[in-house]
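Mods, move this if it's the wrong board.
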Amino acid sequence: MPPPQRAPILTVEDEDDWIVSFAFGPQGTDRLTLKRTPRLEFMLRPEQRGVFVGVGMGGRPAPLVAVQWGSKSVDVVSTERRYSLDISKVDGNLLAAALQVLGKMNFDQRFQLAGV
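Not the wrong board. Structure tokens:
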């Protein structure tokens, strides 16, 4: 497995949508975004509910399967791909906020959350 990609920037939203988004790539211009919109899920079929992983502006988001959270890295696994990110440079308060939102996202145990 290749070494984790450096992800020095983390964005967390905890309002109508629950979002944890990592900036990575050479200049931190690419984004890996985990998103759940609980207020709208009641209108969706069961297979359309849950957390979805999107990369950048293109492509179709894929369902989240697992998150393995470590002290310096995080692995995000979707039905399409596995991402390994180096989060060693991210502020501890942001990391704690991201873990809190990930816990909320997983209220129905739709994905594996380990290492927390």
